[in-house]
Every structure is written in structure tokens, then in C-alpha cells.
Specification:
The chain is an alpha/beta fold. It is 41% helix and 19% strand. Strand 8 (186-193), helix 7 (199-216) and strand 9 form a beta-alpha-beta unit. Bound molecules: 3-isopropylmalic acid and magnesium ion.
């Protein structure tokens, strides 16, 4: 049966980076059926909602979904449930992509682009496994209410249940086992939370440990626990001490931005959001819509191209084509291909050319 990749270019630099990714897809997987849909602000402008039922249904029916980016100042005044970000959250929730994999990999050609010293980041290869469809992002109740004295109260509910914690923990352990980096200081799985102040964090820590004791211990993958603030600190102090960092939705959001900058450029980093086996994954670059450079042909298409690479690997079962892309991107960098974010002056399409030339 033919495989379908649903492309959701979205807002800002999304369409530009997806355009280059399509060139790569047509080259390495010409039989792949490419479809397009709208999401985020682009969808709001056209249909009055950042995610239509039709788009969600088509996403569910596809083999994988590749998104560009959502959001931008244009929609700042729009009420929350219609903001571009709500489209992305709806897509994540609708596809139940609970496991967000965010690799932070330092291409050696780019080690000097990092804000940290070369020796701290050269060869860095860590992975953040972020729970993506629970926690404070989705907890109820939430809202902003007016108080009798004329002031207001804003509130969100941070919550996690045993099954939500267990399923993401299993993903982290499976992946850590495959990676095999147990000798690092916090190698294997390092689970982070704020168990010192949050009850949902205490439950997180207890349930990760309980599942480990009951079922995962025999895998031989070490388990560490760390407070999220300490993890933020260690990530800039000794990033290579980590391997797989397991985090909830909010801490995973923050720590993955931090980890991305260790590598020199957020413009290089892909991500995969996975559900249970056999269900479509959602792939997106870690960078946002970058409205400041949108439409100028300055964006680095590498993160989107590498997100497609992850789709080939995790959803489409085409690891040969995926390897081919990884190699091509590395080689283009070795030969000096650079967009502005990584210290060069190539345009988005020239960077695409440079990567295509290596395929
Ligand atoms: C991310 C982004 C999103 C998030 C926003 C755009 C809703 O920051 O994917 O990390 O907070 O999850
Ligand atoms: Mg984020």
C-alpha cells in the first residue's frame, strides 16, 4: 500500500522550509504520496480555526505528518482557542502523539557556533523524551477569572496520572536501551521533575521508579532522577553527561530549547512526536515560525529536512533513505554550506541545493 505524508507548512518560515524538504522527499522517496493541508494561522485565516476537522481526519489517515511551524504576531490578538498554537496542540492531542523525541546533536562542523566552549559540546548527542499530550498544557480547570476587588486570577492545573507516566517512561527506556550510552554520568534515562514542590512531580518520580522496579530493571538501562532546575544547570555545565532525559510536557518544552542551543543552532534540530506503534507520527522542526525572517529566504531548511528524515525512520520504515539524508546534511555542512543562523550567508533554497547535491 502506498504511504502518504501529509504536509502542513503552517506559518512564518514554515512554508519555505517545507518547500526545500519536498525537493528532498521527491528525490529520496519518489513513490511517497505527498498531500497538503492547512494548520495554525494559515488555517485560521482561511477557515476561521487553526485546525479543521478535515485536516485532523486526514492527519489520522496518513502514514506521517510533517509540519513546518505555527504562530506569529499577526494572531496575537486572537482568543486562545483560535490561536495558531491551539492548532498544534489539537493536532498533538488528536493524534495522541504522547512521546516527543527531541535530539540535541552537535554536528562537529558546527561546534564553534555553540554558545558553550567547543570541548563541552563537540560530539554532543543527547535526546529529550518529552511527554506531549498531558500535564499543565492540557490540565483542567484553567482560565482567567475576574475577582470581586477588580483584579484577576489566572490558573492552570498541572496533573499526571499513572498510565500517562508509565507509557512515556517505557518509550524512554526502549530508546535508551537502543542507544546504549550507559557509561555517561547520567547515562541511560534521567527522569526530571520538581518533586520537591509539586505533587504531580512527586507522583512522576514515584511512578517512574515503580515501573522501573517492577518491569524495566532487567533491561539493564540505568535510571537517574534529577530536579528539573538542576537539570537545566547541568545541561550547560556538563551536557555530555546526559543521554536520554525524560521530562513532562512543560519541563520538556523548556529543557529542549536549552538543549537545542548547546548544539549551535535551533535551525538544525528536528523532532518526532509518536503515538502507539502503527499510528501516524507528527514531525516538526524544533524552531518556531521565526516571523522576523519569514518570507526572506533566510531560514535554515535543515531542521525540517531532518524532521522528514525522522519520519522516514520512525513512521515510514525507510531507514536507508533516512541514513542517506543524515549523511547528506552532514556532508553539506562539512563542505561549508551555511545559512545565516549558523554563520553563513546561503539562502533557504541554496542550502536546499547544497543538501540535494549530496544525495
Ligand atoms: C514547542 C513549542 C510549542 C510548545 C508551542 C508553539 C505551543 O514551544 O513545540 O516546543 O510549547 O509545545
Ligand atoms: Mg517550545
Amino acid at each position: 500500500m502506498s504511504q502518504t505524508l501529509l504536509l502542513l507548512p503552517g506559518d512564518g518560515i514554515g512554508p519555505e522550509v517545507i518547500e526545500q524538504t519536498v525537493r528532498v522527499a521527491e528525490k529520496v522517496a519518489p513513490d511517497l504520496n505527498l498531500e497538503y493541508g492547512a494548520v495554525g494561522g494559515a488555517s485560521y485565516d482561511e477557515y476561521g480555526t487553526p485546525l479543521t476537522e478535515d485536516t485532523l481526519n486526514r492527519a489520522k489517515a496518513s502514514s506521517a505528518v510533517l509540519m513546518g511551524a505555527v504562530g506569529g504576531p499577526k494572531w496575537d490578538g486572537v482568543e486562545r482557542q483560535h490561536r495558531p498554537e491551539a492548532g498544534l496542540l489539537g493536532l498533538r492531542k488528536g493524534l495522541d502523539t504522547y512521546a516527543n523525541l527531541r535530539p540535541a546533536l552537535c554536528f562537529s562542523a558546527l561546534a564553534d557556533a555553540s554558545a558553550l566552549k567547543r570541548e563541552l559540546v563537540e560530539g554532543l548527542d543527547i535526546l529529550i523524551v518529552r511527554e506531549l499530550v498531558g500535564g499543565v498544557y492540557f490540565g483542567q480547570p484553567k482560565g482567567i477569572e475576574a475577582l470581586p476587588d477588580g483584579t484577576r486570577r489566572g490558573f492552570d492545573n498541572a496533573e499526571y496520572s499513572t498510565p500517562e507516566i508509565h507509557r512515556i517512561t517505557r518509550v524512554a527506556f526502549d530508546i535508551a536501551k537502543g542507544r546504549g550510552n550507559f557509561g555517561r554520568k547520567w547515562g541511560g534515562v534521567c527522569s526530571v521533575e520538581k518533586s520537591n514542590v509539586m505533587d504531580s512531580g512527586l507522583l512522576w518520580k514515584q511512578e517512574v521508579q515503580a515501573l522501573y522496579d517492577a518491569e524495566l530493571k532487567d533491561m539493564g538501562v540505568p535510571l537517574h532522577h534529577m530536579l528539573a532546575d538542576a537539570c537545566a544547570m547541568q545541561l550547560v555545565r556538563e551536557p555530555k553527561g546526559f543521554d536520554v532525559i525524560l521530562a513532562d510536557n512543560l519541563f520538556g518544552d523548556i529543557l529542549s530549547d536549552e538543549a537545542s542551543m548547546l548544539t549551535g543552532s535551533i535551525g538544525m534540530l528536528p523532532s518526532a512526536s509518536l503515538s502507539d506503534a502503527g499510528k501516524p507520527g507528527l514531525y516538526e522542526p524544533v524552531h518556531g515560525s521565526a516571523p522576523d525572517i519569514a518570507g526572506q529566504g533566510k531560514a535554515n531548511p535543515s531542521a525540517a529536512i531532518l524532521s522528514f528524515e525522522m519520519a522516514l525512520r520512525w513512521s515510514l520504515n525507510r531507514s536507508d533513505a533516512a541514513d542517506e539524508i543524515t549523511r547528506a546534511v552532514g556532508q553539506a555542512l562539512e563542505k561549508g554550506a551555511r545559512t545565516g543562523d549558523i554563520g553563513g550567508s546561503l539562502s533557504t533554497s541554496q542550502m536546499g541545493d547544497a543538501i540535494l547535491a549530496e544525495l
